[in-house]
Write a structure and sequence with these properties.
The complex is a heterodimer of chains A (about 375) and B (about 575). With about 375 residues, chain A is an alpha+beta fold. Chain A folds into two domains: about 5-240, P-loop containing nucleotide triphosphate hydrolases (Rossmann fold, 3-Layer(aba) Sandwich); about 240-365, OB fold (Dihydrolipoamide Acetyltransferase, E2P), CATH 2.40.50.100. Chain A contains nine helices and 20 strands. Chain A has helices at about 50-55, 100-110, 115-125, 140-155, 170-190, 200-205, 225-230, 235-240, 340; strands at about 5-10, 20-30, 35-40, 65-70, 70, 85, 160-165, 190-195, 210-215, 215-220, 245-255, 255-260, 265-270, 280-285, 290-295, 305-315, 315-325, 330-335, 350-355, 360-365. Chain A is elongated and about 80 Å long. The two termini of chain A are about 30 Å apart. In chain B, about 75% of the residues lie in helices and about 0% in strands. Chain B has helices spanning about 5-20, 20-50, 60-65, 70-100, 110-115, 125-135, 140-145, 155-180, 185-190, 195-225, 230-235, 240-250, 255-280, 300-330, 345-350, 355-385, 390-400, 405-415, 425-435, 440-450, 455-465, 470-480, 480-495, 500-505, 515-520, 525-560; strands at about 50-55, 55, 330-335, 340. In chain B, the strands form two sheets. In chain B, strands 1-2 form a two-stranded antiparallel sheet. A two-stranded antiparallel ribbon of chain B has the order 3-4. Chain B is globular and about 75 Å long. Classes of the chains: A alpha+beta (about 375), B mainly alpha (about 575).
Chain lengths: ~375, ~575
């Protein structure tokens, strides 16, 4: 059961009055393959929830088409769509018991009470919370409510499961636990799923592919690995994980390699997208954990030389803020296993280096590369 | 403001959307038609009759009324009575609220019960008891003190009756606001070094001001509109507008003049009501955290606490005196002359007067559930559905709150006296009047509850395959049960105790207990009037207890506490 969005656009507010108009989703197209779990990721107001609600049928797109399993379903009301949503607030019916909540969809389909009970017990068994069968909603913890909401959706065997920030109301530890749980259940049932979140770590854990959105537009759609290691533009690079942007200039292009000058050093970096030419201004994208640091006394080769501004010891890691002469931005470095790698003090001069395969080059103006 | 074209386009889009659900669209149209016909149309009739004469726009009748000394006096008196009752009633209500919300004095639930009784009894009981205590044959004036021509009719007596009748409304409003003040705010003020008086003056009182203002305005509107107390107590030397309008119509058969007086009554009531609703009520500082807040008892010093307690005891004693008087009056042979006990008044009520009891019960029992369900449907539509005129729907249904009963009564006889809408004298006109006058409370509590229900709960049901009717029936309505029952109780109490509009609409075939009581008072048969009143209040209390029991049975202990009353 695949999902396909074609040119989905949603304008909220007054059609006449331009000032009141809000372009929530802007020409969004993507496809989710059968059994795949795709996450819509972006900051609040990026249009991810609106896109999800358009798929569920709660919003009507201003333009564009929604296809599920090869059928265009724009005109189908939400109750006729074979989608099921897990809401941010869980939306457990407060006047029904846990069993009644989970069996609600089957009851609407006209199942016999005996069959409903059997099916509800079965799903609660698979999801490992059979003891909650007789509970009332007000007796459930946040994580339990989450499970009930998920079971209530899955029991109907929908073609597509939609998750609207399902973990945002849970505490940090439970969130980590539940996202693994959600992924396990999704894989067990093999349901095509679309998941909305603003938490990039959550997106990395649960998804086969991630759609990064900003201001209603798709910034990049790729696997978690691609998104992290080869962000398509500075927005994606900045939004996913922590990142250093080092401005540079291409001084030479040698077939597959670019020679880039930056700060007080220069380096040869692979020309992955082949679109740069000599004298282009670029941004080098380096994750803080990809930087190596050494003291100038022991090592003469370096990409950049700087001075430690601040160091924060976090146990497993140590984080440095480094000022580099001729660069406005400070560089962040994260060193794992500091006990082995040694410590630097604030004020120390350091040589910074990195492996060319760990970095990524983007046009300076933030344009998307592909 | 949006442009006319913009409005038109938006409406067109909304109509297109709503027409996808024909059942819903039909319901909306039906409700609009009913609201227009049974709320707006009678008002339009009143206004038209007062500003048109012989088919032309003219201020003749209004001018005529305005130039009449007696009517002008009636207007001044009504306004004066409204202001004084509002201020004094809110003062007493505030004392009660402060004592019950902010101190730990004993007898709190007893005080609350006593303050609630005037709300669930006919509004003219105060006036009746005052005559029985202070009138020509009054128990206090005549029997105890031997004064035989004490003047209780007029300003003094009426003010006393109005304050007793309406202070409970102020008490409930102000108490709600005081209890919603987060006690940590007061704690913070103490923590910053404030003395008790300073904390009260700088934190508690300012936060309660919107509630107090709102109570004053509501009391003003209610007193202005009140009909029962002035009819009994005002007397001819202290004319009151609502009574004058009634007398013009029933005594002089002068419909245009009656309508003009009603119109004059309508303007200040409606303007003050909407001032309260859209301006003062918005300024309330309500902080909803979802956590129950325990009211702080630290603001009131022990001395002040006992002063407050004593004043509550005093007010409670006055109210008790009134109800004991009525109860005694119902059993006394001839009130004031022969106070020996008898059952003859009850025999009268259960004999000759019994048709009024059954009529009242039939009317209340029929109109109440209809008003309750209609209120929930309107609340649901207004909060959850998008359609053109949505705000107008809420506005119009709230309008019957603001319009004095006298005006509605006159409007109904003007609007429904000829075919195809010839309802005067029928059961239908009484039912319609009660249904459309008492839906606002159901709507208000329904709207309040629905705004707290996360819309995604309903979306979840739709998402699981329910259509909009199933969702309303299975999800929304059960969640609105508490609101439904408070609306139900309110409508029932009002239907049982209404007089101002109903007095125009009763007939030989369909009569009401309240109207019976009134005519007994007018003909000096205070014993029968008291017996009627006792039975009336008894029925109301029994029904409230029954509804509570039903709720407790079906919704557990939680259900019983869902009701405010």
């Amino acid at each position: 059961m695949s999902v396909k969005l074609v040119g989905i656009t949603k304008i909220f507010g007054d059609q006449e009055n331009i000032q009141k108009k809000v372009l929530a989703v802007d020409d969004v197209s993507f496809e989710v393959k059968e059994g795949e779990m795709v996450t819509l990721l972006g900051p609040s107001g990026c249009g991810k929830t609106t896109t999800l609600r358009i798929i569920a049928g709660f919003e009507t797109p201003t333009k564009g088409e929604v296809w599920i399993s090869g059928k265009m379903i724009n005109n189908l009301p939400p109750n006729k769509r074979d989608t099921s949503m897990v809401f941010q607030s869980y939306a457990i019916f407060p006047h029904l018991s846990v069993a009644q909540n989970i069996g609600f969809g089957l009851e609407l389909k006209g199942w016999k009470p005996k069959d409903i009970e059997k099916e509800v017990r079965k799903i609660m068994e698979i999801m490992e919370f059979p003891e909650l069968y007789h509970r009332r909603p007000e007796q459930l913890s946040g994580g339990q409510q989450q499970r009930v909401a998920l079971a209530r959706s899955i029991i109907n065997k929908p073609s597509v499961l939609l998750f609207d920030e399902p973990l945002s109301n849970l505490d940090a530890k439970l969130r980590v636990q539940m996202r693994i749980e959600i992924r396990r259940i999704q894989k067990t049932f093999g349901i095509t799923s679309i998941y909305v979140t603003h938490d990039q770590e959550e997106a990395m854990t649960v998804s086969d592919r991630i759609v990064v959105m900003d201001k209603g537009e798709i910034m990049q759609m790729a696997t978690p690995f691609e998104i992290y290691s080869h962000p398509a533009n500075t927005f994606v690079a900045d939004f996913i994980g922590r990142v250093n942007f080092i401005p540079g200039k291409i001084i030479e292009v040698k077939d597959k390699w670019l020679v880039i000058r930056f700060g007080n050093g220069q380096k040869e970096i692979e020309n992955k997208f082949g679109q740069f030419k000599k004298d282009d201004k670029v941004m080098i994208v380096i994750r803080p954990e990809s930087l190596d640091m050494s003291s100038p006394e022991e090592d003469q080769s370096y990409a950049i030389q700087g001075k430690i501004d601040k160091s924060v010891y976090l146990g497993a890691t140590i984080e440095y803020e480094i000022t580099v002469k001729g660069m406005n931005r400070k560089i962040n470095a994260v060193i794992y296993n500091p006990i082995e790698k040694g410590f630097f003090k604030e004020g120390d001069l350091v040589n910074i280096d990195f492996n060319p395969i760990a970095v990524h080059v983007l046009p300076e103006n933030g344009e998307t590369v592909s | 403001m949006e442009s006319y074209r913009g409005w038109f386009k938006r409406s067109k889009r909304e109509i297109a959307q709503i027409s996808k659900d024909p059942v819903l669209a039909f319901f909306i149209l039906l409700i609009f038609a009913a609201l227009f016909l049974f709320i707006l149309y009678p008002l339009i009739k009143v206004i038209v009759l007062s500003v048109f004469s012989k088919g032309q726009l003219s201020l003749g009748i209004l001018g005529d009324v305005a130039s009449n000394w007696y009517f002008r006096q009636g207007f001044y008196n009504s306004i004066l009575m409204g202001i004084l009752t509002a201020v004094i009633g809110t003062g007493i209500g505030f004392l009660f609220a402060l004592t019950l919300a902010k101190t730990n004095v004993p007898l709190k639930s007893f005080f609350h019960l006593i303050a609630i009784i005037p709300i669930v009894s006919p509004p003219f009981i105060g006036a009746m008891a005052i005559i029985m205590l202070f009138g020509n044959n009054g128990f206090i004036t005549s029997t105890l003190l031997g004064i035989h021509n004490f003047k209780i009719y007029g300003f003094r007596g009426l003010l006393l009756a109005q304050v007793i009748t309406f202070f409970p409304v102020a008490y409930i409003t102000v108490r709600g606001v005081l209890e919603s003040i987060n006690p940590t705010l007061e704690d913070a003020a103490f923590d910053l070094g404030g003395s008790r008086w300073n904390v009260f003056k700088k934190v508690t009182l300012p936060l309660a001001i919107p509630g107090i203002a709102s109570a004053i305005l509501v009391l003003f509107v209610e007193t202005l509109a009140d009909f029962g107390n002035p009819l009994i107590l005002a007397g001819s030397k202290f004319p009151i507008l609502s009574v004058q309008a009634y007398l013009q119509i029933t005594g002089m058969y002068d419909l245009p003049r009656g309508a003009a007086l009603a119109f004059i009554l309508l303007v200040p009531s409606v303007s003050v009501y909407f001032l309260q609703k859209y301006w003062v009520a918005r300024k309330k500082y309500v902080t909803i955290t979802g956590k129950p807040t325990i009211s702080s008892h630290k603001v009131i010093s022990p001395t002040v606490k006992w002063i407050l307690f004593s004043s509550c005891v005093l007010v409670t004693a006055v109210i008790l005196l009134i109800y004991i008087t009525i109860l005694w009056g119902a059993f006394a042979n001839v009130w004031g002359y022969d106070n020996s006990l008898t059952l003859k008044h009850f025999n009268y009520v259960f004999g000759v007067g019994f048709k009024a009891v059954t009529d009242t019960l039939i009317i209340a029992a029929t109109s109440t559930p209809i008003a309750g369900i209609l209120g929930m449907i309107i609340a649901f539509l207004v909060v959850r559905k998008i359609f053109p005129g949505r705000q107008n729907m809420e506005f119009v249904s709230m309008l019957s709150f603001a319009v004095p009963g006298t005006v509605i009564g006159i409007g109904y006889i003007l609007a429904f006296n000829q075919p195809p809408l010839a309802f005067t004298g029928t059961l239908l006109i009484l039912l319609l009047n009660f249904i459309f006058r008492y839906i606002p409370v159901g709507i208000q509590s329904g709207v309040a509850i629905l705004r707290q229900v996360d819309p995604s709960i309903e979306e979840a049901a739709i998402d699981l395959g329910a259509d909009s009717q199933t969702t309303f029936k299975r999800i929304t309505l059960p969640l609105m049960v508490p609101a439904f029952f408070s609306g139900l109780i309110y409508s029932f109490v009002r239907a049982m105790t209404a007089i101002s509009a109903a007095i125009f609409l009763v007939s030989a075939n369909w009569n009401l207990m309240t109207v019976q009581i009134m005519s007994q008072v007018e003909s000096g048969r205070l014993g029968a009037a008291s017996a009627f009143s006792v039975i009336l209040v008894g029925i109301i209390l029994v029904v409230i207890m029954m509804i509570r029991m039903i709720l407790t049975t079906f919704y557990g202990k939680f259900g019983g506490t869902m009701l405010k009353i």
